[in-house]
Amino acid sequence: MTIEILSHQQHAVAAQIHTLLMLAHAQEAALLGLKNFVPSEQTTADIQASEEFFLGCCDGPTLLGVISVCPDDEPGTIHIAKLAVHAAHQRAGVARALVTNALQRAAGATFSVCTAAKNAPALALYGQFGFTACRWGTMGDEAWDLVKLRRTPPR
Fold first, then answer.
1. CA 46 to CA 71: how far, in whole Å?
2. Which of 3-7, 22-26, 123-127, 142-146 has the lowest mean pLDDT?
3. Cα gap 31→120, rounded to integer Å
4. Both ends of the chain: CA-CA distance in Å?
5. Distances (CA, A) of 39 to 42, 63, 89, 110, 147
6. Cα–Cα distance between 44 and 17 in angstroms, integer?
7. Least buried of 85, 88, 90, 97, by fewest C-beta within 10 Å?
């Protein structure tokens, strides 16, 4: 299992990322009891055109999980835009390895992430890295509760 920078502009790589994200979004929608999950609308072309920085957790040619980061709307903050792990590889340390790698690449930076307020696994994972809730809101046609978490660098 290795963490690699993904060349998401390449169609084949973007297609792998898209497939993984669609599976993860379907799983999250079921967890949250949602019918219309907004992140599911992203296409392979959207991923290719994205200005996000993508890292993948790979086992040979197999993409086990993905994380992407981008500038946050709050100056000086890096936002974790996506984190997804294939269901067959969950609870094996893939998400932890991806978050660890992203945090290490920008040591000393403040990070943020948004997740559903009812997504207990995501909240637990981010909590282990020192993320704490800083903002709440709703999203989508079904007005699901969203929480923004922030992690300031350790001193």
1. 17
2. 142-146
3. 10
4. 30
5. 6, 19, 21, 24, 15
6. 8
7. 88
Helix (H, G, I), strand (E, B) or coil at 33: coil
Cα dihedral angle (11, 13, 16, 22), rounded to 10 degrees?
-70
Helix axes 120-128, 94-105, angle to 10 degrees: 50
Token representation of residue 54? 């993508």
Can you tell me the distance from the alpha carbon of 52 to that of 71, in angstroms, rounded to the nearest whole number?
8
What residue has token string 């992407």?
Answer: 68
pLDDT in tens, 77-134: 999 999 999 988 888 899 999 999 999 999 889 999 999 888 889 999 999 999 999 9
Is 35 in a helix, a strand, or coil?
Answer: coil
